[in-house]
Here is the input.
Amino acid sequence: MTERSHEISGHSGELAVHVARAHGVETMFTLSGAHVFPMYDGAVKTQQEGQGPQMRLLDVRHEQTAAFAAEATGKLTRVPGLAVLTAGPGVTNGISAIAQAQFAGSPMVVVGGRAPQNRWGSGSLQELDQPPIIAPVAKSARTLMTAAEVASGMDEAFTLARSSHRGPVFVDVPMDEFFGSATGSVGSGEGTRVEPDTDAIEAVARLLAQAERPVLVLGTDVWADHAEVAALRFVEDLGIPTLTNGMGRGVIPGGHPLLVTKARGAALSGADLVVVVGTPLDFRLGYGVFGGPDKNPGGAFAPVVHIADSPGQVSGHAELEGSVAGDLTTVLDGLQAAIERGDKPDWKVWADQLADQVKAAAARDAELLSAEADPIHPARIYGELVPRLADDSVVIGDGGDFVSFAGKYVEPKRPGGWLDPGPYGCLGAGLGAAIAARLARPSAQVTLLLGDGAAGFSLMDVDTLVRHDLPVVMVMGNNSAWGLEKGPMQMLYGYDVVADLGQRTPYDDVVKALGGAGETVTDPKQIGPALDRAYAAGVPYLVNVITDVEAAYPRNTFGI
Here is the structure.
């Protein structure tokens, strides 16, 4: 990164690329469009210069994939991802990914093309005022009206995207100004963080010191805020039972004695204090209500503490016993230091009780993970997959019912190795995320978990994997239905409609037609060998497992 600001000159595309490089961006995700040609020229010129980091151009088959790839890059690298989308439909095709980034706190910058300003109002191709459409789902959305604004405007966009609370930023540039030249400056390429209130930290430390059955919940922002080391230290040194969600998964390695995600119900029902760090108190966490008469023998609701990376992320709907907002490493280290200044609490009995629950849950899971059912039970896929996942594996979920099983059975060994749609619940993100993961972690094992429904949104971008030589293993749970909707509709009405897909569709043939490889599996004994072939293939490979549509994931919430 550039350590201090310096002046640059060139056309607007060159200026934009120089700023992106200064912020650590290595890849521009795009689909060819004339409105943004200057960005491509800027990237080509960095490659020709042969000095410093170059800007890779990666083109996809649908703009949603470019935007989802940028969003996943922001998650994985914690440097803003960059998507460059042509004007009009190119931009609107990326809005779902921008919204997902807003919900998940993913740092990304989307640069849109825009009809020329000197023709504005006369009906030129794809003339659309885009920022007002995107503003509700982004940290900022604005037009850089002149070439002279591009360098500073792009620097502000990247700085904002990577500052707490992270998220997407959109800018567009009129086509005539994009081709124009100007002079600007490149800044330091850093974001800003919030300094937490020490009194608030001390107050939460007192609550923790008094608790007998606390539970810690670690979410995506623990990873995004570079607090994974502090979080693991906090858990291990204090001995506090912990649950993880989102990209908090892996912060406490799978199999760790204090990771009690498999005993989630017992932990949250029996807790006398729940401390939630770096994730919203949304439907995934019962809206911040834990315990109570129907769950806790004592009938009490657990007091809740919410810790977030910035004030705007602290829950406004839940009843909180305490809260802290700010840099999460500072908060966690401050909490630990404050607790250890007094009589260190002993939570071993509570932790052991939950560890026993984890063992019991694992024993119950074993039967499904090894099930010989015909059609195949989705859990059997994970019984074969989990032992084959490397410690450095990046696992991506794109689907409803099938990926719900992954949340139950896959426990990453390292932080930063799990990608799911997050609270926005958007399908179709998988291929973009797989592209991003293969680029961000070139030596890692990359596994994309696909529902057959979700695959319909983006499977064409296997062509992108093939063209750019990006081998990824895709594992599909193919139940020939929209499983997440079929069961609930039957429960509500006694029937279902528009919930069925083509029976046993050979999606692996689609992958083969696009230049990859794959196979269909109908025998549970063949899942493991098929996975071995997939990981050894060195090409995009789809293992299309035909599963039982009646074997639905047992869920406690439908997100309402």
